[in-house]
Amino acid sequence: MTDAISGLSGTTQTSSSTAAASSALTSDFETFIQMLTTQAKYQDPLEPLDSTEYSAQLAQFSMVEQQVQGNELLESMAAQLGMSNMAAMSSWVGMEARAAAPAAFDGVNSVTVAPNPALLADSVKMVVKNEAGTVVDTITMPKTAEPYEWTGRDSSGNLLPAGDYSFEVQSYDVKGELVVAEQAEVYTRGSETQMVGGDVVLITGSGQAILASSVTALREPKA
User: Fold this and answer.
1) pTM of the model
2) Which comes out higher in pLDDT, residue 192 or 166?
3) For the chain, how big is the Rg over CA atoms in Å?
4) What is the DSSP letter of 7?
């Protein structure tokens, strides 16, 4: 089962809006043809349609037709580009991608977390949450962006069960007040790539879906 896509913020909605707009334009185009045909069919022979007005309507007809064809061409090009991107990113399968998303802990291997605390932070903590959103550990972190290997154990040294865990890095000022809290990036292995609403997403082994554009780094899997 694939979870909600991490990093997808409105792009699918935009694609749907574009499709709806194109559909509306096509409907207007067909209505315009019917109106023009009816007008020519039932015009008064004694007072025929003015040639200038008729030419203007034909010009409008041509503009609408070109716009419809242009939209269809753009949609086709966008689809081809998306498939091309997915093919290019197929090499990501089997690699470990870094992104701000939950990480799958298998109960054995550690999870590499890439914290990014605020530059002016006086102290830094990392809050670990399980799939239910429950805090399972709070770790005091160094004021650095160096990768951190989370071994899957709580503060008492107990091994936590396998599952998806999220990591929030909290930066505090000298007064101990929270300055900023951000989801940390983690490395997770990709198992396949998919097209979702015109966007390429990377599917992890646990079923997490990560927007390809939100991936900030790739590396060979750990031995």
Assistant:
1) 0.59
2) 166
3) 28
4) T
